[in-house]
Amino acid sequence: MAKVELKQPIVQAIADDIVDAQSIVLVDYRGLTVAQDTELRKQLREAGIIYKVCKNTMMKRAFEGTDFAQLDEYLEGPSAVAISKDDATAPARILCKFAKTAEALELKAGVVEGTVYDITGLTELSKIPSREELLSKLLGSLQSPITNLARVLNQIAEQGDAPAEAAAEEAPAAEAVEEAPAE
Fold first, then answer.
1. Top-level CATH class of 3-128?
2. pLDDT at 77
3. Which of 8, 24, 21 is nearest to 57 (CA)?
4. Which of 104, 110, 105 is nearest to 126 (CA)?
């Protein structure tokens, strides 16, 4: 069997992984301990991110004709790829956070929604909260005025009952006072 025939399934597997991907981030993983690599893979897996160590030539072939072909110039030295199909900023966010504790992990570049970012761009992208966090903040902002209105109305209702109760308690006492001089 020729070498090309052996490599074709690997290239096809990478190409299948990048179909419909929102983002790809390339990293240099040299120097990571087994424990660090295991922890990194666990965090990425939990976020639904595909993480693979692949040969650069295989990735170049798989990236041909896609937005990710822009990463060819960064494919030097050992490379691992993190692929996200759901959350575009998740790979950058997780890898940048992990790189703070594991200094051996170096980000190379990434493509997020068709735009190429270098290390500084990925670092800035990593500061963007996840889609779920942004939606929950938006929902909280939308609910806040309604919640505050409900609290104010509840306080008004409670205060409205208190004067009525006080007036009801004072009314029999006032009648007793009026009756006393009539005797």
1. alpha beta
2. 87
3. 8
4. 110
All structural domains of the chain with their residue ranges: 3-128, 130-183
- Digit-coded pLDDT (tens) for 129-173: 777 787 888 888 877 788 888 888 888 888 876 555 554 555 555
d(CA 82, CA 95): 9
CB proximity list for 133: less than 8 A, separation 6 or greater = none
Burial per residue of 98-112, b for 16 or more beta-carbon CB atoms within 10 angstroms, e otherwise: bbeebeebbbbbbbb
Pairing relation of β-strands 106-112 and 23-28?
antiparallel
pLDDT band at 9 (very low <50, low <70, confident <90, very high): confident
- 52 in Cβ contact with 84 (< 8 Å): no
User: What's the pLDDT tens digit per position in 19-78?
Assistant: 888 889 999 988 899 999 999 999 999 989 999 998 888 899 888 888 888 888 888 888
Token pair for residue 163? 């004067």
Report d(CA 33, CA 48) in Å as an integer.
23
